[in-house]
UniProtKB/TrEMBL annotation, chain A:
Keyword Mitochondrion assigned: yes
Annotated GO MF terms: serine-type endopeptidase activity
One cellular-component annotation, GO: mitochondrial inner membrane peptidase complex
Keyword Protease applies: yes
Species assigned in the record: Callorhinchus milii
Alphabetically ordered keywords of this record: Hydrolase, Membrane, Mitochondrion, Mitochondrion inner membrane, Protease
GO biological process, one term: protein processing involved in protein targeting to mitochondrion
Annotated active site: S46, K89
Recorded name of the encoding gene: immp1l
Similarity comment: family membership: Belongs to the peptidase S26 family. IMP1 subfamily.
Protein name, entry field: Mitochondrial inner membrane protease subunit
TrEMBL record, chain B:
Xref: Pfam families: Peptidase_S26
Assembly information from the UniProt record: Heterodimer of 2 subunits, IMMPL1 and IMMPL2.
Family classification: Belongs to the peptidase S26 family. IMP2 subfamily.
GO molecular function: serine-type endopeptidase activity
Organism: Callorhinchus milii
InterPro entries for the chain: IMP2, LexA/Signal_pep-like_sf, Pept_S26A_signal_pept_1, Pept_S26A_signal_pept_1_CS, Peptidase_S26
Name recorded for this polypeptide: Mitochondrial inner membrane protease subunit
Keywords annotated in UniProt: Hydrolase, Membrane, Mitochondrion, Mitochondrion inner membrane, Protease, Transmembrane, Transmembrane helix
Amino acid sequence: MRSGPAMLRRFFRRVLGLAGFTIQYGCIVHCTFEYLGEIVMCSGPSMEPTIRTYDVIICEKLSRQFYRIDKGDIIIAKNPNDPKMSICKRLIGLEGDKVCTSGLHDLFRSHIYVPKGHVWLEGDNLHNSTDSRNYGPVPYALIRGRACFKIWPLHEFGVLRESPND
Amino acid sequence: MVRASGFGKRYLKAFLSGFFVAVPVTVTILDRVAYIAKVEGASMQPSLNPSGRKSSDVVLLNRWSVRNYEVHRGDIVSLVSPKNPEQKIIKRVIALEGDIIRTMGYKNRYLKVPNGHFWIEGDHHGHSFDSNAFGPVSLGLVHARASHIIWPPSRWMKLQSELPNKRKPVLGGEEDNCE
């Protein structure tokens, strides 16, 4: 009869320990994904030929925190028209830069200066990309991270390529 | 010597394991659940900081309630300033996507809030740098919803979601059914 409560106590202690362990590692995972980097699978044609659908890339968060994102970097950002979706584009202009806003087939080229606190994003596949040419400059705070490394497919493993459009 | 180093090692181990629990758990709670912040400036008078420079309110910012970017008209939210990513601003939500509103000093007199955007204004019109200056703001910039004033204690209260009567949307104020 004595062993009943002792067993129960041991059981509860084990459950509590397991819960604590789960919370601790959940929190560590959250911090890693939020502040260091995360693994992202891409879909859509807008970044071809640099990134194709089903490519897996590593996206690091440090340069966003320290405002080290530069022109030419590929970034992952929240879609300004739908915050639950993410977009992957190349950063073409930082605040104060002069960028060309017209599409490929427009007769007249128009330019604007990127406003303060915003960036200009364009896909590498200029013919099939919804980007800043459609929705205008994007606030810097929507940037989630910088795509720096491709890990899948294996034969393209390595640092992401420079823009094909320069 | 041996005992001392053994003690030091044990102490270090306990410190490290405590550190690896406390820091991630705290950061996650601040990121996911709620945190507190001091309100600066006069843009939300009289709801926040009513006595001006003399005292600042401290508010509880609920991050959990905006995890799916769900905000309602009248809520007080904090968001990253679209003009300066290092700064957070606190404003009242006036209109959501699809609403048509009358602006107060923006370049268009009437405006339909685009998809994925919302319209924010400070309660203290004329002393607030808000959507009337920079236009509709992307929902992705929303950071938290201010739910309570927690300091000073005399001002402790729940912040109500209320829309000033004359700032109701011209169209789209009610959820319309179009099927």
